[in-house]
Write a structure and sequence with these properties.
metal ion binding, single chain, 14 strands, mainly beta, Mss4-like_sf, zinc, seven-stranded mixed beta sheet, 1 helix, lyase, carbon-sulfur lyase activity, glutathione-dependent formaldehyde- activating enzyme (gfa)
Length: 195
């Protein structure tokens, strides 16, 4: 069976037809595959290491149409409480896991939408609409962030802290001892439009 997939790697788009496994999502070559049936908590072959405790991971949107994988150590993992993340995700906070962009691959239809800043792009599943990807060109390095709650083993993702603490919803309890940043948790270049 051939399906048209939108593959994004290094910021380039390839719209060529590619073979797809009949499972929920295409297998991402070179990365561990997930257990059929989308059992998010028991995928074999997981590796841990690096800043965020994650060396490689795979995941997918709730409908399984958009899958992702990353290899190499994560550069940053953070809870985000900003209004924009809440608006896009429909959740009181988001969990983002960042990798160098060249180490992240996607399989499936990505629907790209601009964020509030001209520098931000957000990627959603083209079928179910789940928020999956965050990219910000104002970051000092080219990094791609994936939704940490959509990885196959979310308990492996260890956040480094809370970004945009000042925008948090007051009744959401966060009893951890992680650092809290009033705004961004990572250095940025001068932003074209402040969000």
């Amino acid at each position: 069976m051939l399906l048209r997939l939108l593959h994004v790697r290094h910021g380039e788009v390839d719209r060529a037809p590619v073979p797809v496994r009949p499972a929920h999502a295409p297998r991402l070559e070179g990365l561990p595959s997930h257990v059929p049936g989308r059992d998010r908590g028991r995928r074999a072959g997981a590796e841990s290491d690096g800043l965020a405790g994650v060396k490689s991971l795979t995941g997918e949107c709730p409908c399984g149409s958009l899958s992702f994988g990353a290899s190499g150590p994560a550069v940053w993992t953070v809870f985000c409480h900003c209004t924009e993340c809440r608006d896009w995700s429909g959740s009181p906070l988001s969990l983002w896991v960042g990798f160098p962009s060249e180490s992240v691959v996607f399989g499936g239809w990505i629907l790209w939408r601009p964020g509030k800043s001209i520098d931000v792009m957000r990627g959603f599943c083209g079928k179910c609409g789940a928020a999956v990807i965050y990219r910000d060109r104002s970051m000092l390095q080219e990094e791609t962030y994936v939704n940490g709650l959509l990885v196959h083993e979310p308990d492996r993702v260890k956040p480094a802290g809370h970004a945009f603490w000042r925008e948090r919803i007051s009744y959401i309890a966060c009893s951890d001892d992680l650092p809290r940043w009033e705004g961004y948790s990572r250095a940025r270049r001068l932003r074209l439009v402040e969000s």
